[in-house]
Amino acid sequence: MTRPRSFATLPAAYGLALLAGVLSLWVTGAWSSGFSGADEPAHFLNSWFVAAYVKGALGQNPLAFATEFYLHYPKISIGHWPPAYYALVAPVFWVAPSTPQTAMAVNLFVAALPAVGVAALLLRLHGSAAAVAGAALWALTPLALEGQAFFMLDQPLAACAVFAALAWAAFAERQTWVRILLFAGLSALAILIKGNGWLLVLLPAFHIALTGRWALLRSLKLWVGAGLGLVPVLPWYLATAGIAADGFNYAPGPAYAALSLSRNFAALTANLGLLGLLLALVGAAGAWARRAEDSARWNVAAVCIALILATLALQAIVPVDLDPRYMAPALPAVIVLAVAGGIECARLAVRHRRWAAAPLLLLALPGAAHLAAREPKANLRMNEAAALAARGGAGQAWLIDGGSGAEGAFVAAMAVKDPGLTGYTVRADKLLADSDFMGNRYSLRFTDPAQAAAELRRLGLSGVVVAERPGVEEFAHRPLLAAALAGSGSGYRLVAELRHKGREGVTRVYRAVQPMTADTGAIRALSLPDKAKLSSR
After folding, report:
1. Residue whose C-alpha is closest to residue 178's, from 224, 247, 236
2. Which pLDDT belongs to residue 334?
3. How far apart are CA 261 and CA 317, in angstroms?
4. Got the DSSP string for 307-323?
5. What does the alpha-carbon distance between residue 361 and residue 504 come to, in Å, rounded to a whole number?
6. CATH tag, 382-531
7. Which of 20, 127, 210, 447 could be cross-linked to 4 through a Cys-Cys bond (beta carbons 3.0 to 4.6 Å apart)?
8. CA-to-CA distance for 220 and 229, rounded, in angstroms?
9. What is the DSSP string of 107-123?
C-alpha cells in the first residue's frame, strides 16, 4: 500500500524543530550566555583553529601549527576528537564573527536536522501527519532541547546516524552504487565527527540479522562501499587511538556493559517515559507481525531497531563514559517506533480512533517538564574577563581557574582576540597541580600559598581570572590560589568582580601590581612539556 506523502512534510518537520530550538535557546538563555560546559569551548576553538589555519597558515606543517597554537592557548583538542565537524564549521568563521553566538547559530540549524530524518522514516511508514508529529515530538524531548543549549558534537552525529540509517534501508531494498556510497559516506562522516559514529559499522549487521537478508553479504557493492568508507577513517584513528583512549573513564568488561545498558535505558526512559518505550515495542512488534505482507514497512522498522541496538552495543563495548547525550543517535529511531506504536494501538481500538493522538501527547510530557524545571544556562562572563585582560596589550600571559568549562571559555575568548599568537594563557589545574587528561591522579604541586604566589610571579603572569561557581566541584588548588592572591605580598590586586548571570557565582579578575614580562619558555614547557620547543614552520 502506498503511504501518502507530501514534499512539504520534510521542510515542515525541520521548521518545527527549529522553533523548538529557539524555544530552548530562550528558556535556557543559551544564546547570550556563552560557554559553560566542559567541552563546548574546545569544540568552538577547534573550529576556529581550523579556520585560522586555512586562512592564514595553509601549507605549513599542520601538526606544528597546532602545537604552537596549543602552547599559547591550551584548549584545542583535535586528536581527542576527530576533525570533520570542525572543518565543516570553520568556513562560518570566515564570514561571521568569532563569537559564542555564531557557534550557537550553527548549532541551532544542525541540531534540528535529526527531525528531518525522523520525518523521512515516518513518511515511509505512515504518511505526512505521522511524520510531522514524530518530528515535533523528537524536537521536544529533553535530549533534543538540551542539544540546542550546548555547542557539542552529539547533534551532528545524531543527524548523520539517522540519515545513514535511511540510506542503508534504501540500499537493503535495492542495491545501487549511489545508495551504498551514500551510506558509506555518511558513516565515514559520522566516525570523523565523533568516535561514537563507529556504531554505524554495527548497523548493517543488526539489520541483516533482523530481516534475514543474508544475500546482502554477497553483494560486491556492500564490500566496496565498506572499503571506501574506511579509507579516510582508518588513518586518522590509527594515528590518534592513544590520544582518544585517554578519555576512557571505565574498564571494559561485563560489569561496565551491564552498567552501560542500565544507564542508557534510563536515559531513553527519561526522554519518553515508560509509555514511550512500550509504544516503541508495540510499533516494532506490529511491523514484525506483518513483515510477510508488508516487507517495506518491516524494512524501515528493522533499520530503526538496528540503529537502537547498534548505539546500545557500542556504548556497552567502548568504556568511554556514561552520559545521556550518548543516546542521541538512538533517540530518533525510538521516536519513530513509538509513533508507529501509537498508531498501532489506535488501529486495535477502532472505536476510539479519535483518541489516537492522546498517547503521543503524553510522550511530550518529559520535555515539557524539563523546560519548566530548566534553570538558565550559566553566563560566566568570560568574554568580559578576556576584554579586561586584553587591555594590557599584546604579549601578556594570564592564569585562569574555575573548572574545565570556565577555563576553556576564557582560553577561547583570549585566543580569538589574539590571532597573531602573541599572548599566553595558563590553566591553574596545570600550574598548581598534576593530573591526567580527565583530571584523574590529581595531586597538588604546592602546599604553601606564598610558594604559589611566587610561581605566578616567576612565570611573569600579568593577571589571574578565577570563576567561583556554587555546586561545581572544587579542586584543592582553588583555596591555595585564593590564599595566594589574598596575601599582602602576592603582587596582584583585584580589579573586577563579574557576577554571573543566570546562576549564582562570580568571576574575579586580578591584575599584577607591577608590569610583568612573561617567561615564555617556562609557560610553554608547562603547557606541553614534550613539545615545547616546536614552533610552526
Report:
1. 224
2. 97
3. 10
4. HHHHHHHHHHHS-S---
5. 35
6. 3.40.190
7. 127
8. 14
9. HHHHHTTHHHHHHHHHH
DSSP-based helix, strand, coil % in the chain, nearest 5: 65, 5, 25
The set of cell numbers assigned to 217 is 553479504
| Distance linking the first and last C-alpha atoms of the chain | 64
Residue type, 82: P
Domain positions in the chain are 156-368, 382-531
Strand partners, 466: 401, 508
- Give the pLDDT of residue 444: 83
Q: CB 357: neighbour CB atoms within 10 A?
A: 14
| Burial 384-423, CB ≥16 within 10 A → b, else e | bbbebbbebeeebbbbbbbbbbbbbbbbbbbbbebeebeb
Those residues whose C-beta lies under 8 Å from the C-beta of residue 85, and which sit 6 or more positions away, are 43, 47, 153, 156, 193, 194
Beta bridge partners of 119: none
> Which residue's entry shows cell 510531522?
132
Residue 48 burial class via C-beta count within 10 angstroms: exposed 0-12, middle 13-18, buried 19 and up: buried
**Signed CA dihedral, 284, 285, 286, 292: sign only:** positive
The set of cell numbers assigned to 385 is 574577563
Rounded (5°) CA angle 139-120-282: 75
Please report the pLDDT score of residue 537 as a whole number: 28
3-state per-residue secondary structure call for 178-208: HHHHHHHHHHHHHHHHCHHHHHHHHHHHHHH
Q: Establish how many alpha carbons lie within 13 A of residue 133's alpha carbon, considering only the half-sphere containing its beta carbon.
A: 23
CA dihedral defined by 89, 90, 96, 100, rounded to 10 degrees? 70
Cα 351 off chain centre by: 45
pTM of the model: 0.91
In this structure, what DSSP letter does residue 375 have?
Answer: P
330-356 burial by CB neighbour count: b if 16+ within 10 A, else e?
A: bbbbbbbbbbbbbbbbbeeeeeeeeee
Angle CA 381–388–422, to nearest 5: 110
Q: Which residue has the cell 590571532?
A: 419
Averages of pLDDT over each 10 residues, the chain, 537 residues: 65 95 94 90 94 88 88 87 94 94 96 97 91 94 95 96 97 96 97 96 97 95 96 90 66 91 95 94 94 92 98 92 93 96 78 58 87 91 94 90 90 92 91 70 84 92 93 79 90 95 92 92 78 35
Provide the angle, in degrees to the nearest 10, between the axes of the packed helices 331-348 and 295-317: 140
Q: Is the distance from CB of 81 to CB of 46 less than 8 angstroms?
A: yes
Residue type, 470: P
Stretch (H or E) spanning 27: helix 9-28
d(CA 121, CA 308): 14
Contact assessment for residue 192 and residue 236, using Cβ atoms and an 8 Å cutoff: yes
Q: Which three cell numbers stand for residue 266?
A: 534510563
Contact 428, 441 (CB under 8 A): no
Which is it for strands 433-434 and 397-401: parallel, antiparallel or unpaired? unpaired
Q: Which residue has the cell 508529529?
A: 133
